[in-house]
Design a protein that fits this description.
113 residues; mainly beta; Gamma-B Crystallin, domain 1; five-stranded antiparallel β-sheet; disordered N terminus
Length: 113
């Protein structure tokens, strides 16, 4: 249902600023590592593996080790668009604030939209 809702919600994307990789595990594991106000992507299911956090996005998710998305959580206040290609080509889905999911797909880029 979320994928259908995401595909229906296609909108024009907003401007990109920056990203911050975060590959270390702290006192928390899994999804608990995602800081408030960020979009978090992991390369494994259930918030495990390499994690990258974004306030606004990145034109090449591969540079952060998360081109293969195993899970995500949007803890920001705006939608986050995920694209199949780098440099924001071919919108795949729109992740609404609060959406958390384990998945298995490849993505090239993502940004607040």
């Amino acid at each position: 249902m979320w994928m259908k809702k995401a595909l229906i919600a296609l909108t024009a994307a907003a401007a990109l600023a920056g990203a911050a990789p975060a590959a270390q595990a702290g006192a928390q594991d899994g999804f608990g590592r995602c800081p408030g106000g960020h979009m978090c992507l992991w390369n494994q299911m259930s918030g495990n593996g390499t994690m990258a956090t974004f306030k606004s996005g990145a034109p090449d998710l591969g540079k952060f080790g998360v081109a293969h998305i195993g899970s995500f959580w949007n803890r920001g206040s705006r939608n986050f668009c995920i694209y199949k290609q780098t440099n924001y080509g071919e919108l795949t889905m729109i992740v609404e604030p609060g959406m958390q999911f384990s998945s298995d797909f490849w993505a090239g880029s993502g940004r607040v939209c």
